[in-house]
Amino acid sequence: MAGSPGIRLTAADLSADSLARARARVAAHAPGAQVTWHHGDLHRLPFADGAFDHVFVCFVLEHLADPVAALAALRRVLRPGGTVTVIEGDHGSALFHPESADARAAVDHLVRLQAAAGGDALIGRRLHPLLTEAGFRDVTVRPRTVSADGSRPALVEGFTRRTFVAMVESVRSDALAAGLATPEAFDRGVAGLRRTAEEGGTFHYTFFKALAVNP
Amino acid sequence: MAGSPGIRLTAADLSADSLARARARVAAHAPGAQVTWHHGDLHRLPFADGAFDHVFVCFVLEHLADPVAALAALRRVLRPGGTVTVIEGDHGSALFHPESADARAAVDHLVRLQAAAGGDALIGRRLHPLLTEAGFRDVTVRPRTVSADGSRPALVEGFTRRTFVAMVESVRSDALAAGLATPEAFDRGVAGLRRTAEEGGTFHYTFFKALAVNP
Question: Which CATH number is A99's domain given?
Fold first, then answer.
């Protein structure tokens, strides 16, 4: 917000808890910010057509059964010529050394569980066709790859261990309940991923950032 | 070379044919360039220790059985404080839409054939540990992702079709001879990859560019 003085923001979330945490964070770090908080579903936003100049969604579409419908609903509240930024990951981009079948299986568990929940953990590669289908124009998608290796210990800790491995560990009981792996196999997968954060290991992951225009 | 006036280059290649083509290209496009041409093996370069300020290798290590030995041989001819640039791809980074088992299998054929030939088509992710093991320091590796979609028709043509799909097609007879696929299955794989270059398709591939210092 430092770069956009006078900006008026509207934040929407389906989760009251997430919204409360966001409010607390803004109160702490940007007490003067003009933010309107909306608790609700992005498919049914109570705002007029064309009410906004820009819409920003990050790690949202990956959880939705019909991302094109969601993008169309967001486009409705954008003014003509308004723009949207969409950021998503793609678990298929996870590239690591040492490679191992166990670690690869652990990544696949994430993909399967997200699909079973109606989402798509491989959505990053699809942003261009999704935005195009939703009626946006001048769609550009740029990759942003995180490369964590011995030259970047903070990134190894912050991304490989505390973000990606932690995410895999968080679905352990779901993966076991879904019959995707035995406890032993699941734990070997986590160990294989952890190994990529040790000396001589590398871990790479690509996020996709799309920008598009409402015609 | 335009940015490095007075630079003296030495080009080495195991293939006399490749060297001849490089000479012709330099004669056509940079007739004043000072280039020494060396036909030989990079593991046994006939140059003094520390003879060079910089070494550049691109798409070379992927073909070698012992990339650390090759890097060590290149390091020998670098002066203390001299630098090396290494660029390699990684077929595991190939990410596309629509995803299909046939197209994925086609990529895997490339990986298996290169492994059978003593190389490693998944080497990009390993550049940091390889350079470190070869005795280089201050190793930094940065990804360079090519993202080809409907917004970049020239890239779809030049990279997806004419580079990647063409590369897969070029190993058809080898893949069939190695028993990796039936002709029908191989051709379905090529068709699946070609589909990613059609409307609504996307194709992404990550190259890794490393810079390191000879201590």
Answer: 3.40.50.150
The letter for the amino acid at B172 is: R
- Interchain contact B101–A (C-beta under 8 A): no
A88 in contact with chain B, both atoms CB, cutoff 8 A: no
pTM of the model: 0.93
What are A73-129's pLDDT values in tens digits?
999 999 999 999 999 999 999 999 999 999 999 999 999 999 999 999 999 999 999
- Report how far Cα A122 is from the mean position of its chain's Cα atoms: 11
The verdict on residue B31 lying in a domain is no
Domain that holds residue B141: 41-213
CA distance A131 to A139: 7
Is B146 a member of any domain? yes
**Cβ neighbours of residue B175 closer than 8 Å, sequence gap 6 or more:** B109, B113, B181, B186
- Domain-embedded: residue B133: yes
B101 vs B99: CA distance, rounded Å:
7
Tell me the three state secondary structure of residue B206. strand
Residue of A86, A116, A98, A110 lying closest to A207 (CA atoms): A86
Please list, in sequence order, all residues whose beta carbon lies within 8 angstroms of the beta carbon of residue B95, skipping any fewer than 6 positions away.
A90, A92, A93, A124, A125, A206, B203, B204, B205
Residue numbers of A between 118 and 177 with CB closer than 8 Å to B: 122, 124-126, 128-129, 132-133, 138-143, 145, 147, 149-151
Q: What is the pLDDT of residues B118-154, one digit of tens each?
A: 999 999 999 999 999 999 999 999 999 999 999 999 9
Is the sign of the CA dihedral A150, A156, A157, A160 positive or negative? negative
